[in-house]
UniProtKB/TrEMBL annotation:
Repeat recorded as keyword: no
Record-linked SUPFAM superfamilies: Sortase
One Gene Ontology term of the molecular function aspect: hydrolase activity
NCBIfam families for this protein: sortase_srtB
Enzyme category, top tier: hydrolase
Enzyme Commission number(s) from the entry: 3.4.22.71
Record protein name field: Class B sortase
Keyword Hydrolase: yes
Transmembrane segments: none
The entry's keywords: Hydrolase
CDD domains named in the record: Sortase_B (cd05826)
Lineage: Bacteria, Bacillati, Actinomycetota, Coriobacteriia, Eggerthellales
Length: 266
């Protein structure tokens, strides 16, 4: 029995190494963050989109949170189940289930919705979106307030403002809002429920376009951590940072509520 257990542990350890190595190889080929990314012009932060799309045509973006392991391609399809267990190279993952970082099927592939929801697994080796769960520590949260979403259309520099810890069935996966008032109420709720107190948060009325990063908590309660951010700077046409107008909000849009209970589990 001991031998069997050791073999099983070895296989799982290998699957962790294999999974992360595959993503590291992709990153080395297509994206090299500037040494001083804060000082770099947002438009000069580049990804080799041709190479990425040659590997996986479902590619829509890249997510990078400096100082963490979050440095991955983002995919998008009409079926969220696909990339729960399929990695960026199209391989079914086993042991350590890496899957892929993916934009919700309820979202537009160009990140033009008022709320863009990006899902990723919480792996026990600290990879994928595991770092987000550590942001419930105020020092960790405040040390990593900046995130980047890079796309073929342009780039977003984001500022995080809330981390909520919710049950799997919490109805937070709303991608569009029928009015400014509905959007503002949604944002205020996320600020009120944040497990950390963020400084310098703009008025919810000034946040017209946001990004949410969701992952499992890996606890018996099977909850979710969701990190919310607003646009601090953008090179994407017709998308303004906080305080400006934003084409993502359609006053006539119906509220599109997604299923917040997606199986984002390691």
């Amino acid at each position: 029995m001991l031998v069997v257990a050791l073999v099983a542990l070895g296989a799982i350890a290998f699957s962790y190494w294999q999974g992360q190595n595959a993503y590291d190889s992709v990153a080395q080929e297509v994206f090299e963050p500037p040494a001083d990314i804060e000082g770099a012009a947002l438009a000069d932060i580049t990804v080799d989109w041709d190479k990425l799309k040659a590997i996986n045509p479902d590619t829509v973006g890249w997510v990078y949170i400096p100082g963490t392991a979050v440095n991955y391609p983002i995919v998008h399809t009409t079926d969220d189940e696909k990339y729960l267990t399929t990695d960026f190279n199209g391989q079914q993952t086993w042991g350590a289930t890496y899957g892929s970082i993916f934009l919700s099927a309820a979202n537009a592939a160009d990140f033009s919705d008022a709320n863009n929801i990006v899902y990723g697994h919480h792996l026990n080796n600290g990879s994928m979106f595991a770092a987000i769960t550590g942001f419930d520590n105020a020092d960790q949260f405040n040390a990593h307030r900046t995130a980047y979403i890079l796309t073929p259309q342009g780039n977003f520099k984001l500022r995080t403002f809330s981390l909520v810890h919710v049950a799997a069935d919490d109805p937070l996966a709303q991608t569009a809002f029928a009015s400014d008032e509905e959007r503002t109420a949604y944002l205020q709720d996320k600020i009120d429920r944040s497990v950390v107190a963020a400084s310098g948060v703009p008025s919810p009325a000034d946040i017209a376009h946001m990004f949410a990063f969701a992952t499992c908590d890996n606890l018996p309660s099977d909850g979710r951590y969701v990190l919310f951010s607003y646009i601090e700077e953008s090179t994407v046409p017709n998308v303004a940072a906080v305080g400006g107008t934003d084409a993502a909000l359609d006053p006539d849009a119906a509220a599109a509520v997604g299923d917040a209970s997606k199986e984002i589990a390691a």
